[in-house]
UniProtKB/TrEMBL annotation, chain A:
<keyword id="KW-1133">Transmembrane helix</keyword>
<feature type="transmembrane region" description="Helical">
    <location>
        <begin position="239"/>
        <end position="261"/>
    </location>
</feature>
<dbReference type="GO" id="GO:0055085">
    <property type="term" value="P:transmembrane transport"/>
</dbReference>
<feature type="compositionally biased region" description="Pro residues">
    <location>
        <begin position="11"/>
        <end position="21"/>
    </location>
</feature>
<feature type="domain" description="ABC transmembrane type-1">
    <location>
        <begin position="95"/>
        <end position="308"/>
    </location>
</feature>
<keyword id="KW-0812">Transmembrane</keyword>
<dbReference type="InterPro" id="IPR035906">
    <property type="entry name" value="MetI-like_sf"/>
</dbReference>
<feature type="transmembrane region" description="Helical">
    <location>
        <begin position="292"/>
        <end position="312"/>
    </location>
</feature>
<dbReference type="Pfam" id="PF00528">
    <property type="entry name" value="BPD_transp_1"/>
</dbReference>
TrEMBL record, chain B:
<protein>
    <submittedName>
        <fullName>Sugar ABC transporter substrate-binding protein</fullName>
    </submittedName>
</protein>
<dbReference type="GO" id="GO:0055052">
    <property type="term" value="C:ATP-binding cassette (ABC) transporter complex, substrate-binding subunit-containing"/>
</dbReference>
<comment type="similarity">
    <text>Belongs to the bacterial solute-binding protein 1 family.</text>
</comment>
<dbReference type="GO" id="GO:0015768">
    <property type="term" value="P:maltose transport"/>
</dbReference>
<dbReference type="GO" id="GO:1901982">
    <property type="term" value="F:maltose binding"/>
</dbReference>
<dbReference type="Pfam" id="PF01547">
    <property type="entry name" value="SBP_bac_1"/>
</dbReference>
<dbReference type="InterPro" id="IPR006059">
    <property type="entry name" value="SBP"/>
</dbReference>
<dbReference type="GO" id="GO:0042956">
    <property type="term" value="P:maltodextrin transmembrane transport"/>
</dbReference>
<keyword id="KW-0732">Signal</keyword>
Length: 318, 444
């Protein structure tokens, strides 16, 4: 994607020569560039320039208020690989936290919404109501979701443990302060919160699959499963790719839920990479170090995205 | 470093805008000597302002019940001073500490603000706030007018950067009904370790876990630090170059907290704020919490509660505290009138700090603390009796970053993930790394 967007910027605009020999215009002229210009300006100002500037920052010991911002070369990156440095353990623990969260949320957020969308795509009374119900949590802000679940899941005072205790199950599970419970809570809350969004995208994708294909499948003697396998899934491929990539990136950027529900506890087990980077850069004002961490995280996400793209491409029957 | 006579003379001769530049050149204070700072602007007592009309931007983080009180003080000030208009902006503290330096660096900073005492050194080193020695001098404020630990805490690199408004320490909040139910005297809360332990044991006999030990910074870390000081220890050494909280007193303090759980006086896995909620709904008897809790508990209907100084668990009385301090921010170009008007404002609010105390604070000023008006505020006065035993963090830039290591140690020990000594040792190692990093960054 980046490639496509960047390329036009570097290619010189073909000179428009008013040649009388060619009364009709030869190329598209300047029009596409003019249409692209507004976005290009925004993209350059808010994405390209900061990205390059960030790389520059990551090569310094950078506090924007201190007059001296010594150039340290790749020291900030080196510290991330040096087990004796102050950031090594914290950073990789936060990367691990992000990894754990992503590995558990992505499959759930790819599969469950698909099931929900398939059900909601059928005609039954109250369909619109249920569509709204599943989408509803998504409109809540992370602050509301976080605070709500922090109280609901409180190990000693929360309603979840009280309920479990009342029906004879263990009522002292440390949902927000122990492992693996904190992860179960964070993954569960996130799935509940964002499931509706993916379901709506799936729903739109499902409605784009031509009905004739299903008819053809049933004429060919294919059952429900065969129709799902050979019509629905291939028809959803572009949507599926979008959902997988989008969910991976969203999960890898998880911040609010852990910040509000567990505060990174127990210890720093649920402090995600974004939480740590924000702390390092914006609270401790070590912006060079934080920028270096961001680039390592970006690199990891870039590689994962490429792998996902590759997986979806190879599935294409040649 | 006092402003020399010549500088004052110079100021007296020419108060024009040019002199600020001139003075800035001979200032040389802080890493960002573009603006000379208040240190060079001493004038006779700035209790009144007679210059042209000025508007002062005053930012703070009073988002709780204290916000409206400060607002009404500001309104009163505006009415009393027709030529000064103070406009107040409130942000969440966390946002505030990010926003203010950014605003100052772009030249859009406010004129006045409030900062916690442990933020002063960081913001002084980063060139966000101005030295205020002359304000203290012209307002004739000194150690005797406050309390030595409170007054000294605002100094960094031999310069004063904050004028204390209040002191907020921990206190021991207790649920009177719960104590009564357990057969304890609700008017005589425990004052030492023996009394405290026997009260907890009695409560346990009635099925009540008396003191919920929280693993979170608010206020688990504050309780731990109070206990370290009580056992005669320190969190950091004098110069703030080495973490000492893992030493013997630290281990005693942490063991005491963890034992609350081991002995059944506290449940395991106490979540954020659950300790205070437990006090409110009668599941706990005691909660060592900040003075700001007064406002929370006042709103709890039907709750009978009291507050006392922390019991003396260790060998000496001691309690964690912080303090709100007035600060003046650096500006691109220094406006002498605004600086003077700012002093008038600081002086005014400081003298009105009895009103401020009503919102759940202990005034920093001794005269107000010792007035009958303050003594009538029973809860605040009770917490205020600890004033001479309050402890602050050392005045070292970046000390806030380092506290994260202590918070993690408290979290891991109280969640029983690591034995106290090991959690503390790991935390201290991490803290030492961060201290070293900061010393390098801020130039020692």
């Amino acid at each position: 994607m980046v490639e496509q967007t960047v390329r036009p910027a570097t290619r010189p605009v073909p000179p428009v020569t008013p040649a009388p020999a060619a009364p009709r215009r030869r190329g598209p002229g300047a029009a596409p560039w003019l249409f692209l210009a507004p976005y290009l300006v925004l993209f350059t100002t808010f994405t390209l320039v900061p990205a390059v500037y960030g790389l520059w920052i990551s090569l310094h010991e950078w506090d924007y208020l201190l007059p001296g911002k010594p150039f340290v070369g790749v020291d900030n990156y080196g510290a991330l690989l040096d087990s004796g440095s102050a950031v090594y353990e914290s950073f990789w623990q936060s990367m691990q936290a992000t990894g754990i969260f992503t590995v558990f949320t992505v499959p759930l957020l790819v599969a469950l919404p698909l099931g929900v969308a398939l059900i909601l795509n059928r005609a039954f009374p109250g369909r619109t109501f249920f569509r709204a119900v599943y989408f509803a949590p998504y409109v809540l802000s992370v602050a509301v979701v976080g605070l709500l679940w922090r109280f609901v899941l409180d190990p000693n005072l929360g309603v979840v443990n009280a309920g479990l205790g009342a029906i004879g199950l263990p009522g002292d599970t440390p949902w927000t302060t122990g492992l693996p419970w904190a992860w179960i809570s964070l993954v569960g809350v996130t799935v509940w919160w964002t499931l509706g969004f993916n379901a709506v995208i799936y729903l739109a994708g499902l409605q784009d699959i031509p009905r004739e294909l299903y008819e053809a499948a049933s004429i060919d003697g294919g059952g429900k499963w065969a129709a799902f396998r050979h019509v629905t899934l291939p028809g959803l491929r572009p949507v599926l790719l979008f959902i997988v990539i989008n969910t991976v990136l969203a999960s890898a950027n998880m911040f609010g839920q852990a910040y509000l529900i567990t505060q990174g506890a127990p210890g720093q087990e649920t402090r995600t990479a974004i939480m740590y980077i924000a702390e390092e850069g914006l609270r401790n004002y070590r912006m060079g170090s934080a920028a270096a961490m961001s680039y390592v995280l970006t690199l990891a996400l870039l590689i994962i995205s490429l792998i996902v793209f590759r997986l979806f491409r190879e599935k294409d029957p040649s | 470093m006092n402003p020399s006579l010549t500088r004052r003379g110079l100021l007296g001769l020419g108060l024009g805008s040019g002199s600020a530049v001139l003075l800035g050149a001979c200032g040389g204070d802080g890493p960002n000597p573009v603006v000379g700072g208040g240190g060079q602007n001493a004038q006779p007592a700035a209790t009144t302002y007679t210059g042209p009309d000025v508007t002062l931007a005053f930012w703070n983080g009073f988002t709780g019940g204290d916000g409206p009180i400060m607002k009404s003080l500001v309104d009163k000030f505006n009415q009393a001073n027709q030529n000064i208009k103070v406009s107040m902006n409130v942000y969440e503290w966390a946002d505030y500490y990010q926003k203010v330096p950014a605003a100052v660096s772009t030249g859009n900073g406010p004129d006045l603000g409030i900062m916690h005492v442990d933020q002063l050194a960081t913001n002084a080193a980063r060139g966000v706030v101005l030295p205020l020695d002359d304000v203290a001098q012209s307002l004739q404020l000194d150690e005797a007018a406050f309390s030595p630990p409170v007054w000294r805490a605002g100094v960094y690199n031999q310069k004063r950067f904050g004028i204390p408004l209040d002191v907020h320490s921990l206190g021991m909040f207790y649920n009177k009904k719960v104590l009564e139910q357990a057969g304890l005297d609700p008017d005589k809360p425990p004052t030492n370790n023996d009394e405290y332990m026997s009260a907890l044991e009695t409560l346990k006999g009635k099925g009540i876990q008396g003191h919920w030990a929280t693993p979170f910074p608010f206020t688990g870390s504050h309780q731990f630090m109070s206990l370290v000081w009580q056992f005669g220890g320190q969190i950091f050494d004098e110069q703030g170059t080495k973490a000492t909280f893992a030493e013997q007193p630290g281990q005693q303090a942490m063991t005491w907290l963890v034992d609350l759980i081991q002995k059944g006086y506290s449940p395991r896995n106490v979540a954020q704020d659950a300790d205070l909620l437990a006090l409110q709904n009668g599941k706990a008897a005691f909660n060592w919490n900040g003075i700001w809790t007064i406002n929370t508990l006042r709103q709890a209907e039907g709750l009978e509660w009291g507050v006392a100084p922390l019991p003396q668990i260790g060998t000496q009385p001691a309690v964690w505290a912080s303090s709100h301090n007035f600060v003046q921010f650096k500006q691109r170009s220094q406006d002498q009138n605004k600086l003077t008007a700012g002093k008038v404002f600081i002086n005014y609010i400081s003298q009105q700090s009895l009103e401020w105390a009503k919102g759940g604070q202990v005034p920093a000023r001794r005269d107000i603390r010792e007035s009958q008006g303050f003594k009538d505020l029973i809860e605040q006065a009770s917490i205020g009796t600890q004033i001479d035993n309050v402890h602050f963090l050392p005045s070292v830039p970046g000390i806030g970053d380092v506290m994260a290591a202590l918070d993690t140690a408290v979290n891991e020990a109280i969640l029983l993930r690591k034995p106290p000594a090991q959690a503390l040792a790991d935390g201290a190692n991490k803290a030492n790394q961060l201290l070293e990093q900061n010393a390098k960054k801020y130039g020692g």
